[in-house]
Design goal:
This protein has 265 residues and is α/β, with parallel strands linked by helices. The protein folds into two domains: 35-113 and 226-263, D-Maltodextrin-Binding Protein, domain 2 (3-Layer(aba) Sandwich); 117-221, Periplasmic binding protein-like II (D-Maltodextrin-Binding Protein, domain 2). 42% of the residues lie in helices and 20% in strands. The strands form two sheets. The protein has a six-stranded mixed sheet. The protein has a five-stranded mixed sheet with strand order 7-6-8-5-9, sandwiched between helices. α2 links the parallel β1 and β2. α2 runs antiparallel to α11 (250-258) and α3 packs parallel to α4. It is elongated.
């Protein structure tokens, strides 16, 4: 018995074959794409890193998902086995914390950025403070409180405490603090007018029109502000080393510098 196939059905079959093959190829390509890169980054990096990540995705085709918080919080989460590929700290201490526990890949570690520490006030207050030894910070606060990231753990708070101690004014304001969980929360307290003064990074102050810089802390009053980056030891994401390299590229440099960071290379 001879099986006959009508011409219209045959044409339909021939059209269907390329569609099936095309779907199979597309599925294979999608599966081969690198998985999303998970980045844990200091809160002060948000504006700049969001822009850098967008450029990275356009250039490399890999998506990123970034968690922003205090470096101390992120380091503790990595220690507790939180899934992360990249860690960018706002100080050397918390990167060292992970390094001592073999939780980063040491060959990928690099010092990425620098920053400055500034004193801010709500934008509508006006005035400047000459930051020098024994400057009248407590008097300037009046009955208000000094917004500061937690000085016991968060890098911005540690830098601030060191600067105030160096200038001889820490004891005069130690009982007038409004500690916050990270530097962006500190910024918000001042921007909303809930604190008359606060200490943040210069890049944070530049990002919020609700605040003004009333003084800058001399670099020699606190440890250098350094942002190290490294691939997390448990990461198996093939794109992680390339991401670290991209953050040191001319494209990323221009974005970081536009936001007020110093690029360390």
């Amino acid at each position: 018995m001879v099986c006959r196939v009508s011409l219209p059905k045959l044409r339909g079959f021939l059209v269907l074959v390329p569609l099936v093959l095309s779907s199979t190829i597309w599925s294979t390509v999608a599966t081969a794409q690198a998985p999303k890169l998970i980045v844990f980054a200091a809160a002060s990096l948000k504006d700049a890193l969001d822009e850098v990540n967008a450029a990275y995705q356009r250039d490399k085709g890999q998506e990123t998902a970034t968690s922003y918080a205090a470096s101390s919080t992120l380091a503790k989460q990595i220690e507790a086995a939180a899934p992360a590929d990249i860690f960018i700290s706002a100080d050397l201490d918390w990167m060292d914390y992970l390094a001592k526990r073999n939780l980063i890949k040491p060959e990928t570690r690099a010092n990425l950025l620098g920053n400055r520490l500034v004193l801010i006030a709500p934008a509508n207050t006006g005035g400047k403070l000459d930051i020098a030894p024994n400057f009248p910070l407590a008097h300037a606060l009046g009955n208000g409180r000094l917004a500061i990231a937690d000085p016991n753990a968060v890098p911005a708070g540690r830098y601030a405490k060191a600067a105030l101690q160096s200038l001889g004014v820490w004891s005069s304001v130690a009982n007038k603090l409004a500690p916050a969980e990270n530097v962006r929360a500190t910024l918000a307290l001042v921007s909303r007018g809930e604190a008359p003064l606060g200490i943040v990074y210069q890049t944070d102050a530049n990002s919020d029109k609700g605040v003004q810089i009333v003084g800058a802390f001399p670099d020699n009053t606190h440890p250098p502000i350094v942002y190290p980056i490294a691939v997390v030891a448990e990461s198996t994401n093939p794109g992680a080393p390339g991401y670290v390299a991209f953050l040191r590229s001319p494209t990323a440099r221009s974005i970081f510098e536009k936001q007020g960071f110093t690029v360390l290379q």
